[in-house]
């Protein structure tokens, strides 16, 4: 039995009782007098009690309990949270206490031992997978970019590709062949060498194993390794977007040999390595052998918690500090992408284009939220700059009395807010709406699609909008599952022509035409373009937001480490 458990038993034993002698204590605690004396001495060393043994005949021993079991548990919890050990902290609590701790986690984020440059941030949901093969969510994609490196990167500020693991690249045969030269002396987090064989294995894996984005790699005919660390990709057709594809999170280079728990504890070669990953937290430590300029922080600790009302609209709240909450500043960026509805044409209300567009008008953004809503703007296309179809609120579409609609959404704050508005609008029309929310893992499994008529989705572009559009339209997305095969085959032909176009400025109008087709046929109903916020404490610097709504962890640093906060009562 742990010492704290023994103290709890002793505390309960002493309630309402006068001072017992050592023999009585030993009998009640089911141990020898010698062991009882040893226990009391250890508890006194911890400062939990004051024990004075009896001296001489007629004198009584004195026992004074200085701590309640609850205070003792809080002290223990304080130490665990100060070390960032959330898994052990939650394991030490009962179900009710776990729920209470989860609701108060923001108050503990300011804790720091001051010995290292440590930043703690909240995550709004658990991590699904850190394997680049399954980098489906924007949260996973962002974290993978910190843990892994790629051959190239897209510089958002310069709007161009930059070398990373590859120091040079060139193409031939009208972009059917691409050569890349790998930097020497690269290594993974475990110290193993990163070489051309790892690059080859990475992309053959992406080509041959299913993922939502497998279409991006299926045209690889073969990969050859040459002298001077050269990797050559031979493609089935022209692809001027191939270097852009190699800069995405999915194209992160992974080791040829991977452990079974690779998705939870990946080994990459990025600026940060994973040192802890459990349902409560993800801890990243700076990789000291990173070949580029290293991170400015020693460690980043991400704690999984449900957003509170005070955090609504904030996915990440950098450097949370309860004492300075009112002094925190908010940074906002308009996301490149769209929150949209997808209709299941198997439902009688959505079988024809005319029906789908009639419901698009009934659910026009102006009927759902005010035009000056700071969190979102009305959408008339899939990108903020596109105007494919402006929904106009009109008469409610006709439908049979008692019609039921199965409505499915995710569970983020933004989606839940819009979902409630859409549900209310549909119910106002007289429909019986069954609203089901699914977490991120459930969304990816897609088992719910057979029992869904209307789905509220959110697509966010990464830094490279050019390739982001190509990725969105070519991936195995939800709307493809509900479209006739002939429609998406036509889209794939259009995408093939886009790949053969060397000029980015000429590719964007082609993407817009695909988007217009999807909107005008009612396969996608644009609802809103979201604004993303990050709240930053005064002591946190180096915050530069990207279109995904996050910041590069490498650029973060602390101007002044906040003093440890007092622990709130449980």
From TrEMBL:
Keywords: DNA-binding. Residues 2-111 form the Transcriptional regulator SgrR N-terminal HTH domain. Gene3D superfamilies: Dipeptide-binding Protein, Domain 3, Periplasmic binding protein-like II. Residues 161-312 form the Solute-binding protein family domain. Signal peptide: none annotated. Pfam families: SBP_bac_5 (PF00496), SgrR_N (PF12793). InterPro entries: SBP_5, SBP_5_dom, SgrR_HTH_N. PANTHER family: HTH-TYPE TRANSCRIPTIONAL REGULATOR SGRR, PERIPLASMIC BINDING COMPONENT OF ABC TRANSPORTER. This is SgrR family transcriptional regulator.
